[in-house]
Amino acid sequence: MISDYIDSISQLRSLYAPAKERSVKKQMSELEIHCKNFIALAPLVVLSSCGSSGAMDASPRGGPPGFVKILNSHTILIPDASGNNRLDTLENIVNTGKIGLLFLVPGVDETLRVNGEARLSNRADLLALFKGDNKPLKLVIEIQVQEAYLHCAKALMRSKFWDTSLHVSRSVMPSMGEMMRSQIGGEGPAETQDEMVARYVTDL
Prior knowledge:
Elements: H1 9-14, H2 21-25, H3 33-41, E1 44-50, E2 56-62, E3 69-72, E4 75-79, H4 88-96, E5 98-104, E6 111-121, H5 124-128, E7 140-151, H6 154-159, H7 176-184, H8 193-201
Antiparallel strand pairs: 1-2, 1-5, 3-4, 4-7, 5-6, 6-7
């Protein structure tokens, strides 16, 4: 019986040429100068995690460039800023201690991928590194780097992500409040986009 699905590594590999030598060699086990510079310039990082039950999560974290602290070539810290208190990423870290990171820099089509071991810490000396950055933190995510490599520009070039002439007006979609009302219901009028932005100003 012929299958329309690829269910083995040998099948998968048969469809593609071998990875180029440069693509394999670019993976490093620590942060060197270019990785460190990329992280220092990045105002946005996406955290990918998986729980022991298989629960998946990809969560964006943002701040001014430099909001992710580099302790050394093997260790970085991400502040856990206030959010919705679902704690999906944090619970996954507690359960498995694994994390994948994707750093983005506005205007740069390349990205930086970092994979490693993660743990949560409320050590006073680590929290103090973020004093004055924002509201007081409850904890930081400490990541021991195992893999780090620059990712090619093709995806962002194809999407033309940074081309402002292609940016979609926020008015194209309903406000978050209106979408949530449609999804889960609720009492009273839905929060407008302007009301949400005004509320977030004091909650960032």
